[in-house]
Amino acid sequence: MKASGYNIRWKKMKYRWQILKTSIINTFQHETAYFAENWTNLFSTVFYTAAMLLFINVLYSNVKTFAGYTFNEMMFLSFVGQMGFYISWGIFDQNDDLLMDDIQKGTLDFVLIKPVPSLFFVSFRRIALVSTLRDGVPTLVVLGSLVQWSALPFGFTNTIFGTLIFICGLVLWHCIRFLLIFPAFWLGNAKGIYSVSYKLTETNNLPLQGYGNGFRIFFSVVVPILFLSAISGSVMLGKSDGGTMLFYAFFVTTIFLAILNLAWKSALKNYTSASS
Amino acid sequence: MSFSTFKQTKMFFEVAKFNALKTLAYPWEFAAFFVQRSIGLLFLSIFWLAVSQSSAEVQNFRSLIAYFLISSATLELTFAYEMKFGKNLIVLIKSGEISNYLIKPLPVIPFLFSGYVGQMWITFIYSFFALIAGLFIMPPLGPANYLFFFVFLFLGFLIAFSMNILVGIISFYVVEASGFKNVTNHIIRIFSGAMIPLTFFPEVLRSAVLLLPFPFLAFVPAYALQNTLSMDELSRLFFTSLFWAIVLWNIKNRLWKKALKKYEGVGI
Which end of chain A is more exposed for a tag (fewer CB within 10 A), N or C? Predict the structure, then answer.
């Protein structure tokens, strides 16, 4: 029995890996078909980075430290925030847009009739590696070159803990965004509700220590957005206890994944397709 | 006002009303809109509270919050927030849908803009409350401040309107113009004072930025409402904004006409 259970899990994982591979190849073909047309996005991210650097410089021309962070530490935090942004943008953004459109237009039928795990499929049917590398790498290289890495108090354990928290943060960010899309199953349209997520990304600009206790709890338990950069960055810099934060990150991620699964099942029951 | 102008104004009003009514199909989106804007203001408050706690030299938190309430309202009222009208134009031009409007015997831009204003009526309500809250927290020093505010707000609107059209015009020439729109948004976020008041900028940089059109979209109207301006400062700001309003308006008109000649719509 144990062996067969193991086999089923292995087969499921293999199947999901195949879906991921197909999504990557499919998105790659899609992105490279009109590659030259999308170069303006790089232009945009370069300007965003320049604007952000100017913002941090102006800020630190008025203060010596900000929420206990030096200029260099703030640059590192921005680096982590930007990395989180580009990874989530590459993996989640297009899928979020597709799901919203599918629900509103009733074309989610085409997904639901496929013999695939539907939530997994709608989460990863587009993985924009080319765009992420094209727009993210130059920005991160510029930001990374401006950080004085040797001056940062990195420790091996904290770096590992911080990286794991960062991954949990990515999963949580995906859960939050999908949960903001699901009201569309009941209301028909949730673009306005989903746009709340754009504002939530502004948490990347503020170190964890800048939040009061109430906000810190709210944005790490109720709307757990701080794990992605504020908490992971704080742990990597040795400003927060890595072990405790990692425990919280795993705990909150597990809860949110369970909520996401339940919400998806409940939402599908309310889905009125185009053809039924 | 001639009869035809009156008829056209009435038609634009009807277009705005129709588009406003269309938005009522999804009432929850309004709640989301207010939540979104409130979260934005909340993060700004948390951020600037942390800044004011980090340095005694930074101006007090109360005036900063008043500034952000007023400047965010101003950014909405000038239609500079995220260049959304420009984004609409990009979509229409890219998809070729603009052909449907070009064949109609009416001025295209005012027609599309009135529709857009109708869709955005909720932002007026938000801006009204944000302005009232800002004025309540930090009342202006005198009636002249209100006058200066409205003058700069109007000039800021003309500048932002032209910028929106110019962003849209790009899509006549390149297939994917949303990158340029994003560039404009990033520049506006920093140089309009929406993210950081220009008073925080180093002197040289601030003087240079005040020569650009962007500060008139948020910072200058809010600054004029909250501070006593010297005659020299007032005239400098007024003539700079007037200059940009006229220049951008004319550039926009010329480029729009030029772009239309280049446009190849399918089926017309």
Answer: N
